[in-house]
């Protein structure tokens, strides 16, 4: 239908057309003004929150607090979906989502506040309450974590009042209708006293609505500039104050008492595209629930060993480094790693033997679980029997020749071969509790993951890539296979529906690291599927049955298609 005909229809209230258009423009402008006020208010809230978080810690800042709470409330299948689709960017996505939600609510608050200030303020208060609830929910939080959200909301309410007030003042300062469709035009009567210049003085200085508008623009500009400056500055200060890069750089890891021999010469066949044997720290996969990385000063860090022990002990970082240090190569992988996925890496670690530590505290009988707890309250449980059975269970302090990177658990993390990371590899660990599975459920177990997170035997094809275009003739297929603690005894490759053929295994660096493999394939023209499977040291092949990562790790063979010409 022709819109101008529609507006011209005599059935529509009988108003003259120009008047209706005029009202529409005014309403649009008002919504725009409300949205602007709302956006500015949200900026104030965030900036004030950041400023208070200088004192209470970055994890208490409203957006991060809400984000962390969202992470903890996310059901496991949704988390797996996010990891599968967004990988390690799932966190940025979450933060972006929260900011968008905040923006929408802020715009609404601004628009409401323009009609009735208390409504808008109530919405701001509600958002502050959500921030408070989120901030005080983590196990390591204190009541002070509520402050950034409380102060953020209060300052935002004040800013909202100022902005709404000056905008109403602008509306009442003279014959506003001089400006056609101006947002001031249809404003409700002022809900609060006009700030700054009274209409009279304003009118004297600058006749008409200009003075009121100038007041509003001054207020809006001031609020915007102020929150940008405070937010930016607070961020800088927080980054400095909570950064332990210098403390980390100062850490000297002593030479290990039990150094590992260099990895055997043949662990890594030199095939372009095959993963390096050791994964560099800066490309090592990272999986954790933290939106703000724990920044732990090793000079203040302590490790408590408690629970079902004869005498609980507490160690400083210096105490820890005085104990015998073991160097050991170990692969870790994540339960969320899909078949063929990236959440697996191999490193050379240095650490203290976990059984040594537990024996120092004296084990009581009857315990069957070791729970490691991190600075931010993560809990990760492992069967005690496995920890004590002679495998290299380490409290690690170094990774590939450096102090642990902050993202990988500085100053200390657990590593226990044979288990997925969620069930063995607690980062930023501050407490080891000897307990039972009956008495205490770890974080991921409460979310439905298997109580005992035994790592499944897995294999991955690194080259060729899926849908690679290859030339007929000799093609090297290569990849990695792992089953830590058990070790890899065999890898086989299948082309299309052909027989399974043995791949060539690279040298072994022990049962706890991945094993690289190659297979020489005489490729013929056409489209072909390549599959791989591995067997652990018991000769058991990985399961062919496809399973999703949740709740006990993915299974199935990696299979990819290539085009040979
Ligand atoms: N404190 C803490 N430790 C943690 C996690 C976590 O979320 N918080 N995630 C675990 C999981 S699920 C895995 S797979 C490994 C990953 O270790 P990485 O990030 O060093 O690769 O850390 C484990 N340790
Ligand atoms: Mo994981």
TrEMBL record:
Signal peptide: none annotated. Residues 1-10 have a biased composition (Polar residues). Keywords: Membrane, Transmembrane, Transmembrane helix. It comes from Actinospica durhamensis. This is Molybdopterin-dependent oxidoreductase. The keyword Membrane applies. GO terms for biological process: sulfur compound metabolic process. Residues 1-23 are annotated as: Disordered. Residues 293-443 form the Oxidoreductase molybdopterin-binding domain. It comes from the Bacteria.
């Amino acid at each position: 239908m022709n819109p101008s005909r529609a507006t011209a229809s005599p059935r529509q209230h009988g108003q003259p057309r120009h008047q209706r258009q005029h009202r529409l423009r005014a309403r649009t402008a008002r919504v725009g003004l409300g949205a602007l006020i709302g956006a500015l208010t949200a900026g104030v809230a965030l900036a004030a929150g950041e400023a208070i978080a200088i004192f209470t810690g970055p994890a208490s800042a409203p957006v991060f607090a809400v984000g962390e709470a969202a992470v903890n409330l996310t059901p496991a299948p949704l988390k797996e979906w996010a990891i599968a689709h967004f990988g390690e960017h799932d966190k940025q996505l979450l933060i972006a989502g929260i900011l968008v939600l905040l923006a929408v609510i802020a715009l609404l608050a601004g628009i409401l506040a323009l009609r009735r200030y208390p409504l808008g303020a109530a919405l701001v208060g509600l958002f502050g309450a959500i921030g408070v609830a989120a901030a005080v929910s983590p196990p390591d939080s204190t009541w002070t974590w509520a402050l950034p959200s409380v102060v953020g909301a209060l300052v935002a309410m004040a800013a909202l009042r100022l902005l709404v007030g000056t905008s109403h003042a602008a509306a009442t300062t003279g014959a506003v209708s001089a400006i056609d469709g101006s947002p001031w035009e249809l404003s409700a009567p002022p809900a609060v006293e006009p700030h700054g210049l009274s209409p009279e003085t304003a009118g004297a200085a600058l006749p008409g609505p200009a003075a009121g508008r100038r007041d509003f623009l001054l207020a809006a500009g001031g609020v915007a500039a102020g929150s940008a400056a405070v937010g930016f500055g607070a961020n800088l200060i927080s980054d400095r104050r909570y950064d332990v890069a210098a403390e980390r750089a100062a850490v000297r890891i002593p030479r290990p008492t039990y150094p590992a021999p260099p990895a055997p010469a043949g662990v890594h066949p030199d095939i372009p595209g095959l993963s390096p044997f050791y994964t560099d720290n800066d490309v090592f996969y990272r999986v954790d629930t933290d939106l703000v990385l724990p920044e732990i000063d090793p000079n203040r860090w302590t490790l408590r060993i408690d629970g079902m022990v004869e005498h609980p002990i507490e160690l400083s970082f210096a105490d820890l480094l005085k104990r015998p240090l073991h160097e050991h190569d170990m692969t870790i992988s994540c339960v969320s790693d899909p078949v063929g996925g990236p959440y697996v890496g191999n490193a050379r670690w240095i650490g203290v033997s976990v059984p040594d530590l537990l024996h120092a505290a004296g084990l009581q009988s009857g315990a069957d679980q070791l729970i490691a707890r991190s600075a931010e309250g993560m809990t990760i449980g492992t069967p005690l029997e496995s920890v004590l059975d002679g495998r290299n269970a380490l409290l690690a302090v170094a990774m590939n020749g450096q102090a642990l990177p902050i993202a990988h658990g500085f100053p200390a993390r657990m590593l226990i071969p044979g288990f997925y990371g969620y069930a063995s590899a607690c980062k930023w660990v501050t407490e080891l509790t000897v307990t039972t599975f009956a008495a205490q459920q770890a974080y991921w177990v409460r979310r439905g993951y298997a109580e005992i997170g035994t790592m499944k035997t897995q294999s991955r094809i690194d080259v060729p890539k899926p849908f690679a275009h290859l030339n007929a003739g000799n093609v090297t297929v290569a990849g990695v296979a792992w089953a830590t603690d058990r070790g890899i005894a065999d890898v086989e490759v299948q082309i299309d529906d052909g027989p399974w053929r043995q791949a060539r295994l690279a040298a072994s660096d022990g049962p706890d690291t991945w094993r690289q493999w190659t297979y020489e394939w005489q490729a013929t023209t056409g489209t072909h599927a390549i599959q791989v499977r591995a067997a652990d040291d018991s000769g058991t092949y990985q399961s062919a049955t496809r399973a999703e990562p949740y709740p006990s790790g993915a299974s199935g063979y990696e299979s990819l298609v290539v085009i040979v010409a």
